[in-house]
């Protein structure tokens, strides 16, 4: 590190990496991956340059949502251990700068996606940004323990947007991809909340673990995992399904169901005794669960000879 760079870091002034962090790059990577899956498995070929541009603008839109979320949530981010080092609470980026970045990138991403592909895809992206920034962040997150359930829709739209880029429409396949993420979100985040309860309580966020307790949260994880399974398997019998996807889905859903069952059976004494090992394991599994479902969809549709004829 040069002396100039060191002095800049010590002064607390924003650097390029701070603005990247403002866009929640880890969340953006999930947006990119699932949107790309939706685009690539669609039955309509998209020129590679157009596909790249569309995914880029979807990613920018996802980043814009993250910046707006950090702008609004700066007060609770300062309280939570998990978020106190984010750019705004740490003082590296001002709230006004975050708002300006979020609004500018929102407008840019929607307009450019509309010009590059079609206005249905752009409209879905605009609604996704609005839903995450306004419906979830400004309203649901601080008002109801169902914040994750309803707010999960924001993270579920990217594959539907990718599909719309390719086809110009919405179909059963894109709706089921949406539902896969939508129903996955609650057990994924509640598993995290079980071993992060104090953070949400200290910040005054009405997470289910805070409002209804961990026992109720464990039951909710099991119920939502059971409800998730039919949507995951239903994708296997659509035009984009096949033996590769179905085999992957059967294995992953069996493992996820077992994990949810194990969480439900445990009490707090057991969880505290082993440092919430099961809950942390299921949370990690939930990350692999979503990634592998969409990876299997892409393999199923992009690699020749992996259709149902494999079983003939």
Automatic annotation (TrEMBL):
GO cellular component: plasma membrane
Pfam families on file: UbiA
Gene3D superfamilies: UbiA prenyltransferase
Keyword Cell membrane: yes
Transmembrane segments: 27-46, 52-72, 93-113, 119-140, 147-169, 175-196, 217-237, 243-261, 282-303
Domain of life, per lineage: Bacteria
Record's catalysed reaction(s): heme b + (2E,6E)-farnesyl diphosphate + H2O = Fe(II)-heme o + diphosphate
Location (main, coarse): membrane
Enzyme category, top tier: transferase
Pathway as given in its UniProt record: Porphyrin-containing compound metabolism; heme O biosynthesis; heme O from protoheme: step 1/1
CDD domains: PT_UbiA_Cox10
Keyword Electron transport: no
Protein topology in the membrane: Multi-pass membrane protein
Sample GO molecular function, one term: protoheme IX farnesyltransferase activity
Example GO BP: heme O biosynthetic process
Keyword annotations of the record: Cell membrane, Heme biosynthesis, Membrane, Transferase, Transmembrane, Transmembrane helix
Further facts: Carbon 2 of the heme B porphyrin ring is defined according to the Fischer nomenclature.
Assembly with partners or alone: Interacts with CtaA.
UniProt similarity note: Belongs to the UbiA prenyltransferase family. Protoheme IX farnesyltransferase subfamily.
HAMAP family (UniProt xref): CyoE_CtaB (MF_00154)
Job description of the protein: Converts heme B (protoheme IX) to heme O by substitution of the vinyl group on carbon 2 of heme B porphyrin ring with a hydroxyethyl farnesyl side group.
Protein name (Swiss-Prot/TrEMBL): Protoheme IX farnesyltransferase
